[in-house]
Amino acid sequence: MRKGLVDWLQVAKPDIVGFQEIKAVENQIDTEALKRAGYLYQYWFPAQKKGYSGVGIISKHKPLHVAYGTGIDYMDFEGRNIRADFDGFSFMSMYLPSGTSDARLQFKFRYMDDFIRYAQDLQKDFPNLIISGDYNICHQPRDIHDPIRLQHVSGFLPEERAWLSDFIHSGFVDSFRQFDDRAGQYSWWSYRAASRERNKGWRLDYHMVTPQLMPKVKRSIILTEAKHSDHCPVLIELER
């Protein structure tokens, strides 16, 4: 928010925004500034561990229902999923773990295995579903700036990429790739070595959409010019 987020929201005017890795509880967030920008409805699901993980959704429209977490205790302890149900579709903000150490990589694999089953069950009740957020995985070589050198790094491991393929095959569409098949389209850049300026990036952020909802998707794009963190926003637009 110190990097111009509220000003950007007032210009871009998204109806609904999902946040991942908020690293804050609600009283640490300037909710009044977000309300003044038009986001009267705000829902935050922080991790139990302070200063870590956490997700949120803000909206100009009141949801019919908000689900905090998945009901899977170890996921919810880290505040990784929140879902808002609207008329005609449901929107989840999801923060999939990173594999920064061997222990966290095993945690990530556990989360991945349990979440794919959870998402399959969720579709039965919410067939028009968008699962948005930071998946911490690049799916294909065109989604990462150096696929040869980075093939043994978490975020582009064969097992992670295979899981993302399985996730898509379980009933989701990578909406961005329905509109743009170019390489070099990234949503995250390291703060090191002028990576963003040199476009040495990774595409880690997705709007995964159930096939039933895809006919209503007008566009799905990466907003690389928005520079409020090491990630940039990704946008999806639905027909009313």
Summed up:
With 240 residues, the protein is of the alpha+beta class.
Outline the structure in words.
The protein is an alpha+beta fold and 240 residues long. It has five helices and 13 strands. The chain has helices at 5-12, 31-36, 73-77, 102-125, 158-169, and strands spanning 16-20, 41-45, 55-59, 65-68, 81-86, 89-95, 129-134, 173-174, 188-189, 201-202, 205-209, 217-222, 234-238. The strands form four sheets. Strands 4-5-6-7-11-8 form a six-stranded mixed sheet, with no helix packed on it. It is globular, with a radius of gyration of 17 Å.
Oligomer: single chain
Residue share in helix: 10-25%
Class inferred from helices and paired strands: alpha+beta
General shape: globular
Series of H and E elements:
HEHEEEHEEHEHEEEEEE
Strands of the biggest beta sheet: in what spatial order? Answer: 4-5-6-7-11-8
Mean pLDDT: 97
How far from one another are the termini? 29 Å
Total count of strands: 13
What distinguishing features does this structure have?
240 residues; alpha+beta; six-stranded mixed β-sheet; three-stranded antiparallel β-sheet; 13 strands; globular
